[in-house]
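seq:
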Amino acid sequence: MHNAMHNAMNNAVQRSSLRNRSSATRRGAAALLLAGAATLAAPAASAQTIPSDAQNPPNLACTVPAATFAGWFASGSPTLNGAVNPANSVTFSTTPNCAFYQWTEQMFLWMTSPASGAYGGSGPVFNSSVFYDVSPADKNGNRIFVPHTPGSVRNLSVRAAQPGPDGLPVIFSTTGKMLEVAPTPTARDGKPLIRNSAGRLVEVGSATLGANGQPVFRDTAGRTIQHTVKPTAQMLARAKTSAPTIVQQFVVDGKPVFIDPFGNPVETEQGQAGGSGVLEAQKGSLIYYTVMANDVYAFYRTMLGKTVPTAAQFPTTQAQLAPIIAFAKTHGTTFPDPNALTIEIKSSWIDARTLPNPQDYIVIQGSVPLYDTSSNQQWTPTRQTAIIPLAMVGLHIVGSTAGHPEMLWATFEHFGNSPNAAYTYNNAAGVQTVAQNTTGTWLFAANGAVEPPTFNLPNMKYTAPNIVAIAPNTISPSNVLRSKVWGAASNVSPNPVDGSTTNSNTEIMMINNSVMGQMPKGDVRNNYFMMGCTWTAGGVAPTQTNQVGTSQLANSTMETFHQGPDNTTTNGTSNCFDCHTGSTTPQANTAVSHLFAKIAPLF
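struct:
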């Protein structure tokens, strides 16, 4: 049946970016039931909702007063799909936590507003000339700004590897510890090198798994390589910190094995096989990504010149902003919204043609790569692209504000993406529990999905230029669960202000309900919700102990395979600042962004 269906679709395969993937014909999901303006209604089995009765004590409540909300709109009152002004990041109130969440909500409504007036053109503000695309990294990791010109089409790509603090791809051990994968050194003949107990690199001739499941490496003469290394003082010092362990990958009996700096094998979660997990929706669309930055960000990067000074910080005050404004004017550019300060966004997109109701999404035209999907083990690029309608499923918003050069890190998702893990919240009657429920039709989870298979593990990865299956899987959709629903784990309070996960969850739910309740009915932006926002206490450089707000924040479309399989921190979790650490100086610097120093100046 599968082959017949695949052959019948062959002509469409050659025209579409999806190539009508074999997994889509296998799984054939039912029509999606998505939450729109009815988000505040009673929960339904097939739609993600926010309980409308969420209520914290007054000192922990977070809403947007009606007069304040009306003032966000350019017209002075809430308008259907109307233009919203950006938050003033220069005069930002640093009072936790509600001010941070209000900033986040206003920035989302601004950049998804229609690009009229000073922005010119049509479509959302982030698609206007105020924003620049940031190109994918070249072979040396360098990028360029791509201006948004009238009629231009975004170029999107499948997932690239998530870099950690050292700029290396991230995976997780079975104990939930973050690991970074360093390139494995190779000999001239291409064979891998491993460091022996004497500290010398030795060429690996063969490798097998021993009776105890431990890897056994042999040199080219067949002698066993003793690879347990005597640790140096520097190695021991790093091991005592919260820094990720740097491992190297070897293939042993056809399986990936990761070796730590001491020469010991590290057990990793199934599917954590290096490379970068690729997300595919249940109906077969790959998920595509793009990164953008606003005009202040682009001209600040350009003003600094070829090499970014180590101490450079993102602007947070009018005094720091003024020279950037002046620099831009000397090059014929006037910022419409300079007080937005520096903004960096990352978004995730699905082929809108696979949706029964694309009108419930923010949609743009985008150019995506095409793959030969005839094999369920490896898809190879056809060196062709297609321009298709793309619907936004996720959005990261990162921006500097007064008092916070480390930037605020926030994220939004569409209600139809993924089911939630269990969570708690407060209402007038006390603590309420919302149970995990996967029943329904979701973009990224099968109806009634259960473990096994384990949630949030990739079935395939991107190994340039191909997409390859991760054994023993075929190329197919994963089942995705939103593990930490409101940016908090069930077993750890995300910040000291709220004091508990339940209070924090309720705070985020309240501001979502407040904003959606005041938005005009039918506004497309009501189909997206804020999961949370994280920053550091006092705006200092991020560490493992000073992350506040919703400090277990992960988007199910972008940190899909890094969020852990459940709502605890026991089996793995991550937050933005686990990877975006910046410098170790008391004040954060631009190194908190993995992009900034790698992007070439505009001119």
